[in-house]
Design brief:
Distance between the termini: 87 Å
Strand content: under 5%
Radius of gyration: 31 Å
Largest sheet: none
Mean pLDDT: 81
Helix content: 55-70%
Oligomer: single chain
Number of strands: 0
Structural class: mainly alpha
Shape: flat
């Protein structure tokens, strides 16, 4: 190596080191990691206790909507499911119980689970993943329609009732 090259190398290294030191000094320091104990665990414990207190207070304030005692001599009318199962009960009125109660829900859950892997679109935005968006919203709208029909438009003996005539909503 020539003397000029040896003379130039330490100066260039000193300039690079000074620039890196300036960049490092200007950036705010972030902690390397945040420990789960006590920060996260205490927050979750507080929220858990508050939720338990609110649910317990609501349970004490409101009675459960129980019906009459069971009578073995009289067969009750068709029971209406709560609103969150009304869509499934509505589906049961159209199909065989094995299909509507077991196969269809499992197929929908499995299909929605594997749908991101079946859709090979490149982007992560909704407009980039048209198939995923269309199928997901179609399934969700169908579930919503079945739930609304089962909750608001079904009455005693699972007959069709207009909600403005009488509301048979089970919560």
């Amino acid at each position: 190596m020539s003397d000029a090259a040896l003379d130039f190398a330490p100066k260039e290294a000193a300039k690079k080191t000074a620039k890196e030191a300036t960049k490092k000094a200007s950036r705010p320091r972030r902690p390397e990691r945040v420990l789960a104990w006590p920060h996260l665990v205490i927050r979750h414990a507080v929220i858990t206790v508050l939720t338990l207190l609110v649910v317990s207070a609501l349970a004490l304030a409101f009675d459960a909507p129980l019906q009459d005692m069971a009578d073995p001599n009289m067969t009750p009318a068709v029971a209406k499911a709560p609103w969150y199962f009304a869509g499934l009960q509505e589906l049961l009125s159209y199909m065989h119980p094995m299909v509507a109660g077991v196969i269809a829900p499992v197929a929908v859950v499995l299909f929605l689970t594997f749908l991101p892997y079946l859709d090979k679109s490149g982007g992560w935005r909704l407009r980039d993943r048209k198939l995923l968006t269309i199928v997901f919203f179609t399934v969700m709208i169908a579930a919503l329609v079945f739930t609304l029909i089962g909750s608001f438009f079904r009455g005693p003996e699972w007959s069709w009732v207009w909600p403005w005539d009488h509301l048979y909503l089970e919560l």
